[in-house]
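Reply to thread "Modeling small-molecule complexes from scratch"

Following up on the discussion above, here's a worked example others can learn from. I took a protein sequence and the SMILES for zinc ion and predicted the complex. Inputs first:
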Amino acid sequence: MENSSKNSKFMLEATKLAKKGSFSTSPNPNVGCVIVHKDKIISKGYHIKSGCEHAEINALKNFKPKIHRNSKLYVTLEPCSFTGKTGPCVNEIVKSGIKKVIIGTKDPNPKVNGKGISFLKKHGIKVKTGVLEKTCEDLNKGFNKRMIFNLPYVTLKSALSTNNMISSKKSKWISNAKSRKDVQFLRASSCGILTSSDTIINDNPKLNVRLKRKELHINTKVRQPIVFILDTNLKIKKNKYKLFKDSRKKVIFNRKKNANDEKNNIVYRKVKSSKNGMNLKEVLKIMAKEFYINNLLVEAGQKVFTEFLSKNLYDEIIIYKSSTVESKGGIKYINENLLKNNKKINFSLNGVNFFDKDIKISFKKK
Ligand SMILES: [Zn+2]
């Protein structure tokens, strides 16, 4: 086998390991690592959770005998070169005696950003970068966006009838049970969920992850995303809604006050308002800076959906389209009249899935 296809093969194994952290690593990135000797994987590791060992350290530790200097270490993200909750991985790699490191993608974290690679090179290690680069980058869309732009990766999610309505007079749900189960996985891979006071008042959603550890294939506690609520005039009466029955953190963006309700784990953050409500860009900046949100899922109604589109603040759109037609009285998911200058927005298709009669379509910003 050619060297480059061998490299891709082993890097692919490392990406599979990295994915195991998708439901737990935030605010840290997903990282996987394999150590290869004589074309065989002799050890594996991945990052599970912030504060726990990094992927490279786990892989080095998982192999008890002394690692042969001709072994190669494959890692999806550039090894870190700074001391955070754990020590720098580059030191341990140098100590291990390994002479070749293959890296998927550079770490955009300003604390690393090439410093890990130069440290390894300085210590006589051969470094190859950019193997399966796009796949490795896609492992950390949210982390990368926060590191580079100080904003979370924003996914807008909506369930629609065939005639593009988001509310139903006939039943509580527009999408079917399989689609709703899929939404559970979306929530589980999100660090935060954004909704609005209108959605809470109209639908009284729980917005939590109801999957078991077994369904997520994890050993850690199931992570519940922080709930962010746009409540301009603080109109929500908290004791009325299901969302406030659990103890996880909630952040209420409003234009009236900054406060900390420690007893109920609620933070109030005052934000400038714009013509159509809260200043969403500022809201997103606060999420990234103060709450380390990598992946944000937006589950709200027409107004918020339209505002994200019109301000160009989204990265991905996921639509669950059911086979029902809603009659009079429904609400469309986009208010075309509010789109800036009525401009045409082009998306690129990212994927299609079928859940019985429902279709899941995902789009990315072009
Ligand atoms: Zn590290």
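What I'd highlight from this example: Residues 54, 79-80, 89 surround zinc ion (CB under 6 Å). The mean pLDDT is 91. Questions welcome below.
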